[in-house]
Design a protein that fits this description.
387 residues, alpha/beta, VC0802-like, Rossmann fold, 24% strand
Length: 387
Amino acid sequence: MTKESTFPLIAKTISGLEDVLASELESLGAGGVMKLNRAVSFTGTTEMMYKVNYACRTALRILKPLFHFEILEQKDLYEKIYEFPWEDYLDAEHSLAIDAVISYTVFTNSQFVAQKSKDAIVDRLRDKLGKRPSVDLEHPDLKINVHLFKDSCTVALDASGQSLHRRGYRKSTGPAPINEVLAAGLVKLSCWDGVTPLFDPMCGSGTLLIEAAMLAKNMPAGYFREEWGFMKWRDFDPQLWDKVKTDQNAMTTEAHVKMHGSDRAERAIESARENLKFTGLYEEITLETKSFEDVQPPFDKGFIISNPPYDERLQIEDSLAFYKMIGDTLKRKFAGYTAWFISSDLDSIKFIGLRPSRRIPVFNGPLECRFIKFDLFAGRKGEQEKQ
């Protein structure tokens, strides 16, 4: 039996999670790991490509580069993409979609790049096969990524299809749910050990708690998901895919950790309960409807990781008073805890009134945020210095 060859791959992620993703890929056995901007490049076999799609918590999508070329003028885009043998990857009866990303290039509109790339591919197939394939933006048979940076263009197959943050377990959400990849990344950035009791006092539909529970159990990130882009590729190997899932599922363990979530909105807690029931994690996580200032610490000591409202999608009447309430509640009730909060409200978060021990820049969609750590001491140490 010949050893399967390796090839280059790229894992896309959220800005601020590159280090976490690189570490995760290395732990999964990926080779040649190199951090990029909002991405990590690595090498692996088809088995590795399947594995990172199924198990990786902090990747948004996995790309398999096909070819690369230089662009000196706009017509080069169409001509170079037309020259590639797309008939080896796609039949005229199948569908495709193009995702274009551009930076500092001769093009100024990513939709135009996607359109010209699509034209080149369908024209090539019409000329070779006598018929044009269709475009399906939701569930294409082949999703293609076109990335332009300055005069460089890389064309890749999207092995994930839909973004990997779509885990498949979130059956109910509130008005501003946190991205699952970001939630998993925050848990990893916090260095939570999977054993220390964990509390989210503004848990919403429970995403942070679910991601933490899956991490503690070593449950694959894609356990509840049903579809990936590579499953529609011509060279898809269902037996190898079943082996990857079986191997990863066998590594799941029992979690011995106490977890608790609260939220002032009953509808949010109802959504969290629905999601927990679907995942089978309902027994690991307790929930209650209560505002942070009214909640009693669920554990003597523990971790707090939370994503409070930013006053962006969830409006806060008085954001300064809101963050002051967080600080007052932490100081009054949570001595002995380690607390982490993420926020894009970089001015108001100062009114927590505690000196943070760490500040980590990270993005939540287009919002520049800080993930901030507070070590809460008992006694005189509890009278911490203000920012």
